[in-house]
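Sequence in, structure out. Go.
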Amino acid sequence: MLFEVWAPHAQDRVDLWLEDTEQGMERDPSREDWWTAEADARDGDRYGFRLDGGPVLPDPRSRRQPDGPDGPSAVVAPDAYVWREEGWRGRDLAGAVLYELHIGTYTPEGTLDAAAACLGELAELGITHVELMPLCPFPGTHGWGYDGVAPWAVHEPYGGPGALKRFVDTAHGLGLGVVLDVVHNHLGPSGNHLPAFAPYLTDLHHTPWGSAINLDAPGSDEVRAYLIGSALAWLRDYRVDGLRLDAVHALVDTRALTFLEELSAAVDRFGTEVRRPVFLIAESDRCDPRTTTPREEGGLGIHTQWNDDFHHALHTALTGESQGYYADFAREPLGALAKTLGRVFFHDGTYSTFRGRTHGRPVDLVRTPAHRFVGYAQTHDQIGNRATGDRLSASLSPGLLACAAALVLTGPFVPMLFMGEEWGARTPWQFFTDHTDPELAEAVRQGRRREFAGTGWAAREIPDPQDPATRERSCLDRSERDREPHARLLAWYRELIALRRGEPDLSDPDLAAVRLAYDEAARWFVFRRGEIRVAVNFGKEPAGIPLGFGGGRVLAAWGPAVPPGPDGVLELAGESCLVLHEA
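Output:
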């Protein structure tokens, strides 16, 4: 077996440590600063690299860290798993319904195998793709996953690489695609041994999480190849269908050919080779349509991106909250909702009070298909980054939750749900960590308290991220699904997803064709997609909504509803919604 490592920081020698034996490695004459060695090894054998006689370090390209990020790596034989679903041809983003899922809290067991046993529920609901939060190893057992330090490996407490393959295989057998959240903008603060080998980080730039990943300084060619190789390994070795790229706005990259362009080109080539759709989903707060504009048209070529502006507008319309970045949206929440549904970004060259500057750029509605953007009412960020991790269901009526579902699932964007949303889960989803470094654990605990002290929260009210009970509270309670009002809401989600799949107007990619009307004071909102009207009453009182035509056919309704009469006015009960076909 060939072992290899890029180690320009080694002065004189690199040794391969393999199952308590050691041998020297040779410099690769064809690749500068690469070291190689041949050795007999079997699946599961522990190994690592020793630089200039120092401690044994895990492989930067480790596929498995059975003893955590600080322990030795383990060999993963490529043929150790026999795939069952060899006929899987993938699922495209057009027509998709995404479901964001955190392995550690989706089930009490918190493992990939336990989550795989529940995938039938999602297939039956009508979900097309499961979007997994990060799986790379991090110190401890439980965490969100954004502090990963081994970008090629799978967190061992989740089940390791074999469990991920079983999960993907099970999903594909049920017709579900799998998307994996990956973090290229920073590495975790603990357990990161990459800088010992090479300039993976640079002090030329800084991020909110410390030194930036080296995308443009000396040595960045190899670092970029490392990250692209990791991305392709998820798609190739684990047969994942797409990657969600965390916070691409934090990728500091001054090179003419950006890392994101290189990555999207590599993913497109891979998709062509394997003849199945593979894609990238960006998280970006830039409100810049160039993120998803094809490379041949001068864009970065990412296939779609999260649309936080739509979320913020919908959230303020539902809750009336106006703190922080919600302030701009809360001035006229239904107007903000109309702008984001009709023009994608709220900040499209407008002044952002949260940023203190003008922000964003308009989307070309004629040339840009709707599936370039993902729409949602809740995500891990928008729940977990609240002080107590409260979901919308903690404060909204079932009627308003149903209105949120109608706007997401009949709107033009690719809809995404956060796990448990479909039944109005009452369990919170809180910020939790399991740092093994006591100083880091205390710093995170105090930092969380300071973050919310300025908004009136007492320290005792902020859940302790390091307390195991914080994670336990965040685990879904599946028994809720069979109780009211959860069962009714679950049936509503199922009905809307089926409607989206069955009505061609609801999968129309034409953003320019969306038509909207609203009354800020009366709290009603309506939009048209083809011959379908979606009407929502956010207010507590009944509303008369002028549709301009009488009759029609009710496709779905939350609460009692009949088509408009001859006067063209739709009478809609408070906190309810309706989907109507004009014919």
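Check: The CA atoms of residues 23 and 99 lie 47 Å apart. The longest strand covers residues 201-207.
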